[in-house]
Write a structure and sequence with these properties.
- This protein has 249 residues and is of the alpha/beta class.
- It has 2 domains: 140 residues, Rossmann fold, CATH 3.40.50; 102 residues, Rossmann fold, CATH 3.40.50.
- 41% of the residues lie in helices and 16% in strands.
- It is built from 10 helices and 8 strands.
- The protein has a 4-stranded parallel beta sheet with strand order 2-1-3-4, sandwiched between helices.
- Helix 1 packs parallel to helix 10.
Length: 249
């Protein structure tokens, strides 16, 4: 399939530059094309999310103008922090403005956990405990029980860039220690997990579902393409594509 024949997905990114995570760049290649627009989430707080969401209409218009056939709103906490009703309203508003099918990282996380049959999960997050608790509340509205295993307490988004692979491994292992679970959720799209997922799943014996990867999975699913990716963990061993967007244009 040529690059021009691939589905075009518009992605709202939480960074100002519209940069895709390395996971997305790697997995999208040969599967979908992406056009991006950043809304600049500076702080992992309700105030930071509110400021960024005010820039959403401009971002949506830019993605529509770039030829998007569907829209993904990246930024897990951005989409769950105000609760399920606000999340669903956000999706509805983006769909109304764009006329395009829309999903979010938070929605893809819920879908992924349900596909994996995970009803009791442990959270390993980049956020402070207050934002982590909001994730637990959001999951509970989808009948997914969760407990906070460990969090990094990061508020300034820029500080996430200094985290390395070992920091993430230590966070996940600490979160899982002594706990029973169906899966562990690594929440924050800036935590790079594709090189670590298989190793952590083998070590912990449960699926490791990270924001960075679940956002990619959700985009592939929205585009209706094969979601199977070798080496990306148990989620990517499933193949649950949605509607092929190319059939709607």
């Amino acid at each position: 399939m040529t690059e021009t024949a691939l589905p075009m997905i518009g992605i709202v990114t939480p960074n100002a530059q519209g940069a895709l995570q390395p996971e997305a760049r790697e997995i999208f290649s040969g599967r979908i094309n992406a056009v991006t627009k950043g809304i600049n989430v500076e702080h992992l707080s309700l105030e930071g999310y509110t400021a960024a969401l005010a820039r959403m209409p401009e971002a949506v218009d830019r993605l529509v103008g770039g030829g998007s056939q569907g829209i993904v709103v990246n930024g897990t906490s951005l989409s769950f922090a105000f609760g399920r009703k606000a999340h669903d309203n956000l999706v509805a508003q983006v769909e109304e403005r764009s006329g395009l099918p829309t999903t979010t990282m938070a929605a893809s996380l819920v879908d992924a956990l349900k596909e994996l049959g995970a009803k009791n999960v442990v959270l390993a997050t980049a956020y402070d405990s207050s934002i982590s608790d909001l994730l637990s509340e959001f999951l509970s509205t989808h009948d997914i029980a969760s407990q906070l295993g460990a969090c990094l307490g990061i508020v300034e988004n820029a500080k996430l860039r200094s985290l390395g692979a070992q920091d993430i491994v230590e966070l996940v292992v600490r979160a899982a220690e002594g706990r029973k679970m169906d899966a562990i959720v690594v929440s924050c799209g800036n935590l790079r997990t594709i090189p670590l997922t298989n190793m952590l799943e083998d070590r912990l014996g449960v699926p490791v579902v990270s924001s960075a990867l679940v956002g990619v999975w959700g985009a592939l699913r929205l585009a209706g393409v094969d979601t199977r990716v070798p080496g990306a963990g148990r989620l990517f061993e499933l193949n649950e594509p949605g509607k092929d967007l190319r059939a709607t244009v």
